[in-house]
Amino acid sequence: MKTMFNKIGFKLILAVGVTALLTIGIFSYFNIHSHSASLLAEVELGANQLSETVIHSTRYDMLLNQRDRINKIITTIGEQPSIRTVRVINKSGAIIYSSHKEDIGRMIDKNEESCYACHAANKPLERLPIKGRTRIFRPVQSAPRVLGIISPIYNEESCWTADCHAHQKSQTVLGVLDITISLEEVDKQIQKSEMEIIIFAITAVLALSFIIGFFVRRWVVKPVNELLKATNQVGVGNLNYTIRDRRKDELGMLARSFNNMTQKLSEARMQLFQSDKMASLGRLAAGVAHEINNPLTGVLTYSSFLLKRTENNPELHEDLKVIVRETKRSREIVKSLLDFARQSVPKKNEANINEIIERSVLVVENQLSINHIKLNKNLDLSLPTITVDANQMQQVFINLIVNAADAVGTNGGTISINTALITLSPYGITHIKKAICPKRHDLTDNEYKIDGMPSIKLKILSPAGEDIVHFDPVYGRNRHLTNITELKNDEKVVCPQCNTSLMEENVKCPKCGSAVISFDIPTQGKFESCTSKSCGWQRWDAVDNEGKREYIEIKLSDTGCGIAKEDLARIFEPFFSTKGQKGTGLGLSVIWGIIDNHNGTISVESIINKGTTFTIHLPLRQAR
Amino acid sequence: MNKQFDILVIDDEQVIIDAVNKICSAEGFKVDTSIDAKDALEKLSKYSYKIIVCDIMMPDYDGFEFLDEIIRRKITSPVIMTTGYSTVENAVMSLYKGAIDFIPKPFTADEILNSIIRAMKYSEVQKMLLASHIQEDDATIIYVPCPAKYYRLGYSSWAEEENAGSILIGVTDLFLKTIEGVEEIEFQKIDEEIIQGNQCASIKSKDGLVHNVLSPVTGRIIERNEEVLKDVSILEKDPYFNGWFYRIIPSESEYELKHLIPCSSDRL
Question: In angstroms, how far is the first alpha carbon of chain A from the final one?
Answer without folding.
Answer: 79
